[in-house]
Amino acid sequence: MLNPAVFTKVFNQQLINVCRPRLGLAVGLALLAPLGGMAAPPRAAAAPGAAVGAASSAAAGSSSVTTRLGALDLENGYPTKATAQKLYDELDLQRASQAYLWALPAVGFKALYDAQAKTMAVRNGDVLLYRTLQDKAGMLTPNITTLYAFSFWDLAAQGPLVVEVPAGLTAGGVLDIWQQPITDLGQTGPDKGAGGKYLILPPGGPEVVTPGYRIFRSPSNQVWFGTRGLAPDKAVAEATVRQHRLYGWNQRANPTATTYSEVAGRPWQSAQPANLNYWRLLSELYANEPVAPRDRMLFGMLSPLGIAPGQAFNPDARQARILGEAAQLGDLMARTIAYDKRTPGATVYPGKHWEYAVLFDLDQESPDKRRVQFEERSSWFYEAIAMSVGMQGRLLGFGQVYLEASKDGKGQWLDGGRTYRMRVPANPPVKQFWSITLYDNLSRGPVITPQGAADLSSRKPDLVSNADGSVDVVFAPRKPVGASNWIQTIPGKGWFAYFRFYGPTQAYFAKSWQLNDIQPLEPVGR
After folding, report:
1. What is the spatial distance between Cα 26 and Cα 377, in angstroms, rounded to a whole number?
2. CB neighbours (10 Å) of residue 47?
3. How big is the CA angle at 206 (ends 204 and 211), to the nearest 5 degrees?
4. H or E stretch including 113?
5. Can you spell out the DSSP letters for 300-365?
């Protein structure tokens, strides 16, 4: 984990970054929101004889301005060659570090696609099943309890997509390259668990009107199908998931059977890189994609660094150096935004340290449509993948709620070398089940220990409850004496937790039932 001083430094750098480049309105307002909107900060009074005064004089000749970049030399007000180079380097670094945050959802999409298509050799339209902990080890903050099924499709190359959804306990969706839902499927979709046929059309092109299909248009050519099986019986859940069918609209008269394959424990990774590969993924993703109006300004900012839609990524030495530094800085900024949230309303219960993991709307814009929810979506897509109506945590009795904690009850970072306890009160507000899962704060993947998954759920057969129905969960590197529901942690590693409510009930929304903090059981240093 970063210490508080480093977090403050990273945030200050981010604020400096957003004040300098001129941005498009929606993205610009999003970046300026942490500074209190568009209001200009107060200007400090210049000291007598300060360099700024000298530089502002047309007759000043050679002068120097003292800045956070050091001394910048001017000749009759013009930047020297060295000053111009320094300013362009800084300008491009600032732009790219902010673009790193902007592109997190898109690069997350591409990284997952590459893992499935290249590492697993799964074709578009085929479905890959993620069953076990090892299957999900390369995924950002996966649920360990339920089965996942993913597939990708290129609407430009393959034409419109038909998805046949079976009746039963499933929840999923089809998403665009920015991980915005085109439609939910299953329990939280229009079919509400009854099943049905969905037709996904490419951007542009003619409208299609046909009975028996729910029709949606994607803003991107590439789309991602994902679903999970929710039946308590794992065999029933998988059998239901396997009834999904994916095929091209041009095959509707005689569709081929959908091929299902399995990860089968093969190693893979989908976290966004913190190096030059981040920009390679972004460039490859936009080889043949339309650019939404709100994203054009960011591509304009990246153009001097050799990144443009439809253009091969071939940076020169300077561009590669700046992009590599920006990816490293952007990753640290994203980590800060995710774990040390400053978004108003992030805290779930006053005086406690549980936070809402999902703080943005489905279109990733503020309710008043005046700004992109820039930090809110950066926080989520640094930690996680996908978004849907069901994942928003706003449906009574359906979908999921994600609460997260990276700090204990005393406000200290969660430490894999320490011992903690959390009491889950009796009668948790869920129609289906609850779970708590621990994740590595660097990889954002599941913590894996000799115990297996650092995970516990109300579906666990040997879950031990107290006499009043509450459940005590203990987190420690070694099992404490008398601990029944123990989750193993790793000394020297930071971790954060997701607590999931599946099918949240009214007591959750009313906060008449509240989750307790994760409390330390021993002082630091013991």
Report:
1. 14
2. 9
3. 125
4. helix 104-114
5. HHHGGGT--TTS-----HHHHHHHHHHHHHHHHHHHHHHHS--STT-BSSTTS--EES--S-TTSB
| Residue 16 pLDDT | 46
When computed from its CA atoms, the radius of gyration of the chain, rounded to whole angstroms, is 25
The DSSP-derived string for 208-225 is ---TTEEEEE-SSSEEEE
Instruction: Find, among 333, 346, 338, 413, the residue nearest to 381 by Cα.
Output: 338
Total Cβ atoms within 10 A of residue 68: 8
CA dihedral of residues 506, 508, 511, 513 (deg, nearest 10): 100
What is the reported pLDDT for 34? 77
Please compute the mean of the pLDDT values over residues 23-50 and round it to a whole number.
52
Sheet with strand 161-165: strands edge to edge: 213-217, 196-201, 161-165, 245-248
Contact 181, 166 (CB under 8 A): no
> How many CB atoms neighbour CB 329 within 10 A?
21
What tokens appear for 197 in the block?
């046929």
Quick: pLDDT tens for 132-147: 999 999 999 999 999 9
Q: Bin 309: left if φ > 0, else alpha if -120 < ψ < 50, else beta.
A: beta
Over the stretch 77-108, which tens digit does the pLDDT of each residue have? 999 999 999 999 999 999 999 999 999 999 99
Query: Residue 188 to residues 23, 201, 389, 445, 449: CA-CA distances in angstroms?
Result: 36, 21, 7, 26, 34
Checking 52-56 for CB contacts under 8 A at 24+ apart, the result is: none
Give the pLDDT of residue 60: 57
Q: How confident is the model at residue 369 (pLDDT cuts 50, 70, 90)?
A: very high
